[in-house]
Amino acid sequence: MGMVHVDELEVNMLLSEDVKDISSRLLLAKGHKIQSKHIRIFKIWGITEVCVHGTQGREKNAESHIDSDTMERITEHTKYIFKHVDLSHPAIKELFRISVLYRSRQGILNTDKNTPSTNTEDLKDHSICDVKKMIGHKEIKLPEMPSTAFELNEVVADPFASVHRIAEVVNKSPSLVAILLRIVNSSFYGFPSKIDNISRAVTLIGTREITGLALGISIVNVFKDVPKDILDMSSFLKHSLACGIISRIIAANKNLPQTEQLFVCGLLHDIGRLVIYQYFPDPAKTLLNLATTSDKLLYQLENRCLGGKHTLIGKYLLKTWKLPFELENNVFYHHNPSAAHHPVKATIVHLADIMVNALGLGSSGERFVPPLDYKAWDNLGISPSSFETTIRHATHQLASLETFFQG
Fold first, then answer.
1. Where are the alpha helices (DSSP H) in 295-404?
2. Which one of 38, 125, 275, 383 has the largest count of C-beta atoms within 10 Å of its C-beta?
3. How far apart are CA 79 and CA 362, in angstroms?
4. Pick from 6, 2, 41: which is nearest to 399 by CA?
5. What is the CA radius of gyration of the chain?
C-alpha cells in the first residue's frame, strides 16, 4: 500500500485505510473502491492524499529525482535553521524530519547560509532606538483602527448582533466582501455549493467567526505600505496565513470552540513586526542586518536593539484599538505561552509559528526556527504524530488562500 495524491487517484483503486476529515469524521471506509464521486468529496473536505492498495513505493518516487548530494545539502541547511532548538526533543525531531521532506518535495534548494560576523561581542552595546519609549510617549502616531474594523469590533462585543447587522457592516467595503466570499468558497471550508452573499456566509459559519475573519483582514490591510526594501509583504502574508491556518487546524483537532478566533490570532501574531517595519524603517533595516550577520534569533535581538519586542508592540496596538483581550493575550504570549493567562490557545499559535518557520512558508523576518516552550508543549496534550496530517491539510488550504489579499 502507499499514499497517492487525490489528483492522481483512479477509479476503482482500493482504499487500504479509512479516509477522515479534519474533525475525524469518516468520509470513506477502507476496503471500498474509489469512484469519481469519492474523489470530489475528498477535494471538497481538503483531503490531499489517501492510502490505497498496490502502490508500493509511490510515496518515495516524489523524492527519487533528487540526487543524494542535493538531499544532503537540504538536510544540512535544515539543521542550520533548526540551530536554536533541541533536535532531540520528540516534537522538534518529528518536525525536522517533515521539514526536510517538505523542502525536498518543493525543490527548496537555496541552501546558502549568510556568514555570521566574527565580532558578535558588539551586540551587547548595539542599541538602535527605544521604540517602546517612543510609542509609549506618543512620539510616533500609530495608525487609527480602520472604520470597518471599528464597527466590526463593536459587533463582536455585542452578543445579540444579528446576521443583518454583520452583513451591513461588511458590505460597506466591497473589497472586504470579495475577500470573505473567496475564503468561504475555498477549500478552507469546503462547502459543496457556492456562497454568494455575506448573510449566507454568516448563517453557515457563525457570527463571531465571520466578524473575526473580517476584523483580522481589515487590520492586516492597514500595513500595505511597508517598504519593499525591508520586507516582502507577500512573503509576510504567506507566513501569517499559514500560521493562522495551522492554528485553526490544531484547535479543531482539540475540539476547541470558535476555531476562527485561532485563525485570526495566527494571522495577526506578528502584527508588532509590521509596526516596526512601517513606522521605524531605518532601525528595522539595522535590526534585520544585525540578525543576519550575528546568526541570532530576530526575536531575541529586538529587545536589545529596539527597547521592546514585537509581541509587546503588537499587544500595545491591539490594546489601544480595544480589541478582544483573548486576541491580545495570544499575540503577546506566542513566544512564551506557558506564561499566558489562557495558555492553551497561546500555545497553539506558538506551535503553529514554529511549524511555519520550520517549513519555510513565507517569512516575517525571522530566519530560524524559534525555541519551543517545553512546559506549554507538555500541557497542550497533542502528539508529534499528528504533525504530518496537520501540515498536509494546511499546505493544501494555503494554496487556495494565498492570493486572497489581491485584487
1. 298-306, 310-320, 325-332, 343-359, 374-380, 387-401
2. 275
3. 18
4. 6
5. 22
Q: Which of 16-25, 52-61, 237-246 is modeled with the greatest confidence?
A: 237-246
pLDDT digits (tens, 9 = 90+) for 134-193: 776 566 777 777 788 888 778 777 778 788 888 888 888 887 888 788 888 877 677 778
Cα–Cα dist 365/6, whole Å: 34
Q: Which residues on neighbouring strands pair with residue 33, listed in sequence order?
A: 14
**CATH 1.10.3210.10 occupies which residues in the chain?**
124-143+224-401
Helix axes 90-105, 387-401, angle to 10 degrees: 40
Tell me which residue has cell 466591497: 174
Contact of 128 with 283, CB cutoff 8 Å: yes
Pick from 114-123, 221-230, 259-268, 336-345 the range whose average pLDDT is largest: 336-345
137, three cell numbers? 510617549
CATH superfamily of this structure's domain 2-61:
Molybdopterin biosynthesis moea protein, domain 2 (3.90.105.10)
Q: How many CA atoms lie within 13 A of 88 on its CB side?
A: 0
Q: How many angstroms separate the CA atoms of 306 and 119, rounded?
A: 20
Residue 357: count other Cβ atoms within 10 Å of its Cβ.
25
Please tell me the distance from the alpha carbon of residue 296 to that of residue 291, in angstroms, as a whole number: 5
- Assign domain 124-143+224-401 to its CATH superfamily: Hypothetical protein af1432 (1.10.3210.10)
**Global pTM value:** 0.78
Nearest to 241, CA basis, from 407, 389, 401, 47: 401
Task: Take residue 144 and report the three cell numbers written for it.
Answer: 487609527
Report the C-alpha gap between 77 and 395 in whole angstroms: 21
Which residues, in sequence order, are CB contacts of 12 under 8 Å at separation 6+?
Answer: 33, 34, 35
Task: Give the pLDDT confidence score for residue 217 in this predicted structure.
Answer: 78
Please count the other Cβ atoms lying within 10 Å of the Cβ belonging to residue 395: 18
Q: Report how far apart the first and last C-alpha atoms of the chain are (Å, whole number).
A: 44
